[in-house]
Amino acid sequence: MNSADAVDISELAIPDDLMHPGAEAFEAMVEVRNRVETEILGTPALSHSAAELLPGFRNPYKPRRLFVARSGGHTVARAILSWRTVTGSPVATVNVEVRSDARGQGIGTALLERMEALARDLNLTTVQSYVTHPALADKDRVEPLSGYGSLSASDPGVRFLTRHGYALEQIKRISFLDLPLPDRELTALLEDARAQAGSAYNVVQWHGSTPEHWVADLAVLKTRMSTEEPSAGLHTTEDPWDEQRVRRRDDDQEASGRLLMTTAIEDCRTGRLIAVTEISLPGPTGGVAAQEDTLVLPGHRGHRLGMLAKAANLRQADARAPQIYTFNAEENRPMLSINEALGYRAAGYDGAWEKML
C-alpha cells in the first residue's frame, strides 16, 4: 500500500449471512486475518473461510464488536473486542491484526486504543490478547510469567504488545500433525490406552450434533473446561454452559459447514461422561482439521483416558483432512506428551497477554 494513502477506521456490522449487505466487507476482514496468520506461521493451515467464521461472530454467549482499517480502497487491518456474558466477569479479549505492508503507520495503535476505550465503556477492567507468534530462534527472549516457554524479543507482535503495557502471561504451543496417521502406530497407541483404562470406562462417539442424552453431560464438561484448562496467571472466571448453549454451539458448527467429530469417555459405574475431545473437520471448501477441547475430569486422570479419547477420535477423523492443528499450554506437560506421542510437531506459538486498564 502507498504510505500516503489516508487510513479510515470504522466499525463493521456483522452480517446475518453472506448473501446480504455487509458480506463483502466481512469477507475482506477475514482475508486480512488469513493473510496475517499465514505470514506469521509460513503456512495457510490456520486459514478459514468467511462462511466458517461467521457463526462464531454471531455467538450470543460471546458478543463481539468488529473494526477495520481501510486504505487505498483495501482493508489492511482488523480489530475485535469480545467479552463473555457471565455476570461479574471483568475480562475483555482484544485482537488486532495489521497487514505487514501497512505497519509502521500507527494503525495498530489506533485500533488497540479504540478497543481499550470500548472495554472501559463496558466496565471491563482486564484486557487479554491472544496473539500468534513465529517459532524464531533469536538469542534475545521474552519469557511469560508462567515460566514455561519463551518468544523472540524481536517479533513484531511481542514488541507491539510490550510497548503498550501488556504482560506475557502464558505461551501455548501451536502444533501440526499430518494425516492420515500410520495405522499400525495409531492402533498400538489405542490398544495400549484401552488396556490401561480397563473395563470401568467406555468410548462413546458421535458426528455432528450432540445426542440428546449426552447434552447435559457435555454442558458440565464444557463448564469445567473453562476452569480446568491451564491458564497461568491470567484472570479467569467460570464460563457456565447449559443445554441450550450446547445446542447453539452444535447449530453454529452445522451453519459453518464444518463437521464436529466427538469422542467421549463414559464412566460405566455411573453412566456419566467424564472426558471429551473434539475435532472440527473442514467443509466442502477444504482446509485442515482443528483439534478443539480435550478434557479429562481430575478424579479420572492417570488412566490414559486422554490418549484413549484422542487416538479414538483421530481414527474416525484422520481420512477426512490432510492435517490437523492444536494449541496447548507449555506448562500442560500431560497433554503435550500425548500429542508428541501421536506425532504432532511444533510450528509456532500463541501468546496470552494481559493488561489492567
Automatic annotation (TrEMBL):
UniProt biased composition (Basic and acidic residues): 236-251
Question: The N-acetyltransferase domain covers which part of the protein?
Answer: 7-182
Task: Supply the source organism for this entry.
Answer: Arthrobacter echini
Lineage start: Bacteria, Bacillati, Actinomycetota, Actinomycetes, Micrococcales
- Which Gene Ontology terms cover its molecular function? acyltransferase activity, transferring groups other than amino-acyl groups
Q: What protein name does the entry list?
A: GNAT family N-acetyltransferase
By its UniProt entry, which Gene3D superfamilies does this protein fall under?
3.40.630.30
Q: Where is this region: Disordered?
A: 226-255
Span-the-membrane segments of this chain are: none
* Family matches, as SUPFAM superfamilies: Acyl-CoA N-acyltransferases (Nat)
Provide an example Pfam family for this protein.
Acetyltransf_1
The record's CDD domains line, in alphabetical order, gives: NAT_SF (cd04301)
Recite the UniProt keywords alphabetically: Transferase
Alphabetized InterPro entries for the sequence: Acyl_CoA_acyltransferase (IPR016181), GNAT_dom (IPR000182)
Q: Record's superkingdom?
A: Bacteria
